[in-house]
Amino acid sequence: MTAPFYITTPIYYVNARPHLGHAYTTIIADVATRFHSMRRTDTFFLTGTDEHGDKILQAAEKEGLKPKQYVDKISALFRDLWPELNIANSDFIRTTDPAHKAVVKQILTRIHAAGDIYFSEYEGLYCFGCERFYTERELVDGKCPDHEVEPKVIKEANYFFKMSRYQDWLIDHVKRHPDFIRPERYRNEVLAFLKEPLEDLCISRPKSRISWGITLPFDPDYVTYVWFDALLNYVSALDYPEGEKFKRFWPGAQHIVAKGIRKPHGIYWPIMLIAAGIPIYQHLNVHGYWNIDQSKMSKSLGNVVEPLELKNVYGLDAFRFFLLRDMVFGLDSNFNQEALVQRINSDLANDLGNLVSRVLSMARKYFKGVVPEPDAGLLDAGWMDLKAVAAKTIDRFDQQMQAFTFHKGILSIWNFIGQMNKIIDTAAPWQLAKDSEHEAELRTVIYNLLEGLRIVSGLIYPVMPDSAKKIQVQLGLDPQAPFYFLNRLMQWGRLQPGTSLPKFKPLFPRIESIPEAPKQADASTGDASQPAAKPLISIDDFAKLDLKIATIVAAEAVPKSKKLLKIEIDMGERRTIVSGIAESYRPDEIVGKQVVVVANLKPVKLMGITSQGMLLSADTDSGFCLLTPDKGTAPGAAIS
Ligand code: MSP
User: Fold this and answer.
1) Does the global pTM surpass 0.90?
2) Contacts of 97 by beta carbon, 8 Å cutoff, 6+ apart
3) Which atom of ligand 1 is nearest to the CA of 234?
4) Shortest-distance Cα residue to atom 23 of ligand 1
């Protein structure tokens, strides 16, 4: 057993629903935890929600709810999402938990008594999104680089934490521990921040302005929230100071955050720890942002990606795999469904799926679905040997996963898969099977390939736990056993000759075209070939539709799609609609036409373009036929 492993995600603000970015961080933490359980390490994985502060209060007011009612509602959305994504967190902390608040008060009391907190008037540039003051130098074009808004000037008497006192200590700590903040680019950035004199941290707000926080133990007129509240969740969740969990897991603490909050985690947090007399965490792992079509995900742009929709359309393991494989940990990545489909088809359906199906169908064909006995002499002679390649692969995988270079860990598995596919082509079992003289060779190569699949299923376990178990079942093994322990994967030959292999089921079907609208989980039943008799509706149901006349002002084909046209319409206001009529109309023949539009359809993204409505058309034997008014009508005219 190695030293216990403790991993945390940021605790997420409850002013918005969980999206792809939150899912990514939490999946990464899950993968890291599962990987450490492969090393038989004792693990603890913490996530949760950050529930105090101005913007949460504002969000609650907007919904007409009391703050506690509101935070309960949104926090539950996060808590309930994680099991759906096969995320096995050990605990879920909320900053409104009484035990957490007690720890915050206890630590504040200690730091205050030590003289590291003082009261003073301050005027500065405050970003409400980040809940912190910015220096002029940190702003880009006068705006917060993360939220792209101009900070507000705030002048207030508040309590401050003397961070400046620990600046030299922190510089020394970061320098002496090269992988304290990783990847290196973020370590360098933190060192660059530390070249400037560190400003003290404002840790309070007067209750006269906002009371949705934790009352300061030394001043009942003030609350603390966000950084001096939120960061402490990492120790309060372990029952700091006396808890068993704290003693066991804190020495192995690692955090995961996106680059937007590297400064609070790389600077405020270690300084808070040293001031409170708590040992410093081991690693801060910083990743980049998922952008959508090159821009930041945001509610106002309407491009927020819902993780559950992707899971429902593509399958959970494929979704998890894509996130881990396509993002270089530390750098930004652009999310689009085309890349996701391509990845599923090439890496999962072609490479892995084909390998599993080829090996299992050969085992069925040549050995009636029973694991053959390899020839000891041939094995000793290293004939078509996979054993050495497997050992090297496991070793490399182990190092990459420990270093948080997940895409490289996955690449080493895929190199191994490539080697196995090559062995099949070189050994050509179908040739060996033709001649009984080669019977021992055939047994040995098929045994080795099956054994190779056992290793692959163990290695993919952290990223694709369900698929790993499915491969175990296909190999006649117990999916509930800890088949993924690295020491078991290292022992070549654990697969017992004579084991029966069950009937083969394909793992990852190819995706032929990008689904046009993500399917909801409950929409997949019923026979789609039969037009359903639709239920009667009332006039009120009909009135929910906002139907309008519009004029088509521009149209063009959507690249890489046979069916879709991107259409600009004028319906009093300009809108973009993506319509599946490309096989019935050329773009130039519809410009100028008047059409009927469903104006209040929820926007959806089709091939990366947001479609804000739908054109009505009849579906005829010769294709689609657009509905148009029978005389010229003003754009925007309502239809009833
Ligand atoms: N509440 C603070 C964190 C306090 S931790 C003591 C906060 N919350 S947040 O809701 O804004 O979540 C930020 C985190 O969500 C990021 O650090 C990252 O983990 C994740 N992501 C949010 N948007 C993201 C992307 N677009 N891409 C990748 N991860 C993103 O900050």
Assistant:
1) no
2) 236
3) 6
4) 21
- Give the ranges where 159-268 is alpha helix by DSSP (H): 167-176, 184-193, 227-230, 233-236, 244-249, 262-263
Q: Where are the alpha helices (DSSP H) in 89-196?
A: 98-113, 167-176, 184-193
The pLDDT of residue 637 is above 70: yes
User: 534: pLDDT confidence band, cut at 50, 70 and 90?
Assistant: low
Query: What does residue 568 show for φ and ψ, rounded to 5 degrees?
Result: -95, 130
Higher pLDDT, 259 or 622: 259
What spacing in Å lies between the alpha carbon of 175 and ligand 1's midpoint?
Answer: 26
Residue 171 CB neighbours (<10 A): 15
- Residues marked as catalytic: 19, 22, 127, 130, 144, 147, 296, 299
Distance (Å) from CA 80 to ligand 1 centroid:
18
Please check the confidence at residue 426 and state whether its pLDDT lies above 50: yes
Q: For residue 435, how far is its CA from the centre of ligand 1 (angstroms)? A: 61
pLDDT in tens, 360-415: 999 999 999 999 999 999 887 777 789 999 999 999 999 999 999 999 999 999 99
Q: Please give all residues whose beta carbon lies within 6 A of any atom in ligand 1, as ranges.
A: 10-13, 21-22, 24-25, 50, 230-231, 257-258, 260-261, 289-290, 297
Phi, psi at 323, each rounded to 5°: -60, -40
State the average pLDDT for the chain: 92
Q: How far apart are CA 256 and CA 441, in angstroms?
A: 49
Q: How many angstroms does the Cα of residue 23 sit away from the middle of ligand 1?
A: 10
Closest ligand 1 atom number to CA of residue 291 = 26
